[in-house]
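Transferring glycosyl group transferase: structure tokens wanted.
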Amino acid sequence: MTTIITTITTLLLFSTITNADNPPQPTPWPEQFHSVLVLNSTDELQLIDLYYDWTNGRNFNIIQYQLGTVLYDIEWNNGTSFFFTIDSDRQCSSVQLDVGILRPNWLAGATYVGQRQVDGFDCYVWEKADFITYYEDVVTRRPVKWVFYTGREAHVMTFEVGAALEDAKWQVPWYCFEQTTPVTTMEDISGTIRHRGLVDFGTRRIINM
Ligand SMILES: *[C@@H]1O[C@H](CO)[C@@H](O)[C@H](O)[C@H]1NC(C)=O
Ligand SMILES: *[C@@H]1O[C@H](CO)[C@@H](O)[C@H](O)[C@H]1NC(C)=O
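Answer:
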């Protein structure tokens, strides 16, 4: 009996130590996925269609502002991004950065901070370099939510692994090559064109939003 208890105690101790030494790691992003996200900020809500396409080195955010504009944001791995509308305004701006899109393992090295209940899901939680808190479903290991250091929250409504957007949809409109306004920050440049790309925001360290 004593032996059994000792064994159990030892096992429990061992598993506790093991867990502390090996915290859960964030699941790398699939190389291609489509996700619908709901984001808030202090003054508005956004619905974002995110097409992450590491395979082809590109990332697409289609950003619907509540009862407002739809902003298209295409980012390539060579650092070029275009932000445009496709209504009669024909607005387009671009930015050239020296970093590409997020890598599938961009969360590697994040600090595990524990398990929390979020949006009704039991989640593992990590913090990455003071700019993002990331929540992943313990059961399915899908992302549930992430929160930027500004307090902006992205809630993951759908997560379709392997879903990709056809090549033709990645075409930038012609006026992007005629009257593109290069911007070096993500400031609101016209009242309509605003970059709120979730992906850029963290890794590219563009804080001037
Ligand atoms: C977004 O919503 C959450 C939850 O309601 C809130 O705590 C947070 O302050 C909001 N973010 C912003 C930037 O308003
Ligand atoms: C990056 O790639 C895109 C898409 O192929 C292209 O339109 C753009 O000109 C490239 N940018 C640079 C700086 O080469």
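The chain has a mean pLDDT of 80. The domain at 32-203 is CATH 2.50.20.30 (outer membrane lipoprotein receptor (LolB), chain A).

Cheers.
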